[in-house]
Design a protein that fits this description.
It is built from 6 helices and 2 strands. The protein is mainly α.
Amino acid sequence: MAKSNWYESTRWKRVRAAVLRRDGYLCRVSIRYGHREPAELVHHIFPREEFPEYQWCMWNLISVTKSAHNKLHVRSTDELTKEGIELLRRTARKNGIKIPEQYAQ
């Protein structure tokens, strides 16, 4: 399924709504830094194109603001930023997941 079609799917809309509810409609990145900002998006910590096995896992999804989302990956390439990689590493440790070498350094 194409990227834009995937985000329009009924299943994604349901999962997205559940994540936003779970996170109290607040940006989890902002909360980490002591701020309470309304979430606008749901972010895949392990990018779904690279890790399709985790695309529906609730532990792999967090509510974020657009600003926080842009700090987690480069919008033009979808590559994770340093902050996005750190979040992936923390999430991997918490869930006992071995990460690819490119993210391990």
